[in-house]
Amino acid sequence: MSAPRSADLLRTVTERLAQAGVPSAYADGLALVAHVWGRSPSEARRDLLLGRQPDQQQLAALDELVGERSRRVPLQHLTGRAPFRHLELSVGPGVFIPRPETEMLVDLVIESAGQNAAVVDLCTGSGAIALAIKGSDPTCRCRPSKWTSWRSPGRPAMRKPSASR
């Protein structure tokens, strides 16, 4: 990717993703620019409006990430983050990305479990369900099972909830 003007950077990234058939090309492009800059998407949007330019290393990283996303590598695996309710989870290959249906499951458990309930999250993966339930009801004894990816060597770890995102 050649060095586009700041105003054209997001447009160029969005066009590449759209040409590859990525349905959320603008949002994904903004997320990738933000990731490369180490910023939130709203901060990256502001920086673009103010004329921030990526350096050559950032431009090369962005080019690689856009190529990967164009080949349908999940955005969350590229950024290493996945939002889930009030949490931000670390994800990557080998850890499923939490789906909206999983948030509905958590809502149902919270509604039906009642106070001081005991909940076991079997085959928890990222730990999203256990963390979300426990975060919503501190009286709940919610335990992930011992067969979890977040306890397995070489797997990404969960992130703590982040109020700044």
UniProtKB/TrEMBL annotation:
<keyword id="KW-0808">Transferase</keyword>
<dbReference type="InterPro" id="IPR029063">
    <property type="entry name" value="SAM-dependent_MTases_sf"/>
</dbReference>
<dbReference type="GO" id="GO:0032259">
    <property type="term" value="P:methylation"/>
</dbReference>
<dbReference type="Pfam" id="PF17827">
    <property type="entry name" value="PrmC_N"/>
</dbReference>
<dbReference type="InterPro" id="IPR050320">
    <property type="entry name" value="N5-glutamine_MTase"/>
</dbReference>
<feature type="region of interest" description="Disordered">
    <location>
        <begin position="146"/>
        <end position="165"/>
    </location>
</feature>
<keyword id="KW-0489">Methyltransferase</keyword>
<dbReference type="GO" id="GO:0008168">
    <property type="term" value="F:methyltransferase activity"/>
</dbReference>
<dbReference type="InterPro" id="IPR040758">
    <property type="entry name" value="PrmC_N"/>
</dbReference>
<feature type="domain" description="Release factor glutamine methyltransferase N-terminal">
    <location>
        <begin position="8"/>
        <end position="80"/>
    </location>
</feature>
<protein>
    <submittedName>
        <fullName>N5-glutamine methyltransferase family protein</fullName>
    </submittedName>
</protein>
